[in-house]
Amino acid sequence: MSQAVFPTLAGIAWNLGRATTFKNRRARNLAGMETAFLYAKYPLYRFVLNYEFLRDIAATPDYDTLLGFIQARALGGDSFLFTDWSDNAVTDMQFGTGDGVTTQFQITRAFAAGGFSFAEPVQNINTLTNIKKATVVQTNPANYTIDANGLVTFVAAPAGAAALTWTGTFYYRCRFDGDKLDTNAIANGFWDLAQLAMIGAPGNRV
After folding, report:
1. Are 30 and 70 contained in the same domain?
2. Which of 5, 16, 96, 192 could form a disulfide with 105 if both were Cys (CB 3.0 to 4.6 A apart)?
3. What confidence tier does 145 reach under pLDDT thresholds 50, 70, 90?
4. pLDDT higher than 90, residue 135
């Protein structure tokens, strides 16, 4: 499980493709009614990047940089960290509520609007700006510690109904989708890469 961060290169198009996938199985009984069996509590996300050009010149070796990164992973053979520029930061995101007993809480990110919400673990934090308990900023390590997988341990159990929030940025842990990569030379010293697909999640699930 590599900690390498996917490189930021010129030439990438804005049109980021993103799909949300769950793993379910549906069975129909003799009466015609369906039953769903959920094999995954949290989704995986599939991203598709489009590089309109990759420079392959000594001053800006984007092509070599990207190929070097991809081939070091053996395409889908190893995971890496990726910044989804459409979803990588939270501000005062609630990740737990104190009960006066529990001291450990997993950092999470939630989608919530219109009375609907869905939270999932964040296990690859990029920058942690602060953690608050009942709106009060906490100090590390005097008030809490946090491990490499985003598990927060408070020195004293947060009081009942105390909202626990965090502000910061995070990565998706991804792997490349597939075992083949097609690139095209479009001019002397320039290549394109129409589709670079990867699968990942804020948690360590690939």
Report:
1. yes
2. 96
3. very high
4. yes
Q: Quick check: helix, strand or coil at residue 161?
A: coil
Q: Which amino acid is at 8?
A: T
DSSP secondary structure letters along 30-86: TTS-EEEEES-SS-EEEEEEEEEEEE-SSS--HHHHHHHHHHHTTGGGS-EEE--TT
Residue 149 and residue 95 share a domain: yes
Amino acid at 114: G
Rg of the chain on CA atoms, in Å = 21
Neighbours of 64 (CB within 10 A): 14
Residue 3 belongs to some domain of the structure? no
Could you check whether the bond before residue 141 is cis, i.e. omega within 30 degrees of 0?
A: yes
Residues 114-132: b if buried by 16+ CB within 10 A, e if exposed: eeeeebbbbbbbeebeebb
Q: Is residue 2 part of a domain?
A: no
Give the domain range for residue 153. Answer: 89-170
- Residues 32-64: pLDDT tens digits? 888 888 888 999 999 999 999 999 998 899 999
In a domain? residue 12: no
Are 25 and 49 contained in the same domain? yes
Token output for 124: 């690859």
- The confidence score (pLDDT) of residue 100 equals 97
